[in-house]
Amino acid sequence: MNTAAAPLPSSNPAGIAAWLMLGIAWLCFLIPFPGLGMFLGWPLNMVAFILAVVAVAKGGAGKGIAQLLLSLVASPLVYLVGVVVFAGTVSAIGQPALDAQANAGKGRQQDITIAPVAPVEITARQLHRDYEANEVAADVLYKGKRLLITGEVASIQTDLMDKPQVQLKAGSVDQVMISGLSREEAGALGKGDTVLAACTGNGMILGSPMTRDCELQ
């Protein structure tokens, strides 16, 4: 009597390859080497995703759905863990050097007295002219530097955070923004007042030089 041979279980090379690519991708995510996860791990994860789709298409959901879901859900979590590991490794490597620099700095501070840098005195009109002429050069001169700005109050307003902002005239329509004043300081000003404000330069936005941490002098 002839008996029918039992069917062999169908092979699933795409699903197996998806598992392999997924494992290598996760390994790349977790190894604390710059760019390994971004430039090798994620492309391998994409390959695993595609292979999982192929496995599902050829063999049904049971052949590749796990790999598919893991590539979409678990891979970002593994990548974040790798980022934390990399940050911790960099911090651990750099901390001894930072400690040495801090100790050396403390030793020098005992012997050296650093004179404070004098603020740059400038009018609102000249500050605006310099930024209009060359924003890059003006940033070198003024951004992040302490400034003593003289100008006439054009308007007194509040920003989206309800913090005072004072506009100084820098021309017929041009203005310089003074930010960081207390509500008491801003409330005591009036349109047309001439003020002297100590500020830190903060670049240029939408055609107006900006400042921060201002105090009236």
Provide structural commentary.
The protein is α+β, with helices and mostly antiparallel strands. It folds into 2 domains: about 15-95, no CATH class; about 120-215, Beta Barrel (OB fold (Dihydrolipoamide Acetyltransferase, E2P)), CATH 2.40.50. The chain contains 6 helices and 6 strands. A hairpin with a 5-residue loop joins β3 (about 165-170) and β4. α1 runs parallel beside α3 and α2 (about 35-60) runs antiparallel to α3 (about 65-110). The chain is elongated and about 85 Å long. The protein starts with 12 loop residues before the first helix and ends with a strand.
CATH classification class of the largest domain = Mainly Beta
CATH superfamily of the largest domain: Nucleic acid-binding proteins
Mean pLDDT: 85
Number of contiguous helices: 6
Q: What's the short story on this structure?
A:
The protein is 51% helix and 23% strand. With 217 residues, the protein is an alpha+beta fold.
Features of this protein?
single chain; 6 helices; 2 domains; OB fold (Dihydrolipoamide Acetyltransferase, E2P); 6-stranded mixed beta sheet; alpha+beta; elongated; 217 residues
Chain-wise SSE layout:
Layout: H1 13-30, H2 36-59, H3 65-109, E1 120-123, H4 124-133, H5 135-142, E2 146-158, E3 164-169, E4 175-179, H6 183-187, E5 194-205, E6 208-216
Parallel strand pairs: 1-2
Antiparallel strand pairs: 2-3, 2-5, 3-4, 5-6
Helix pairs in contact: 1-2, 1-3, 2-3, 4-5
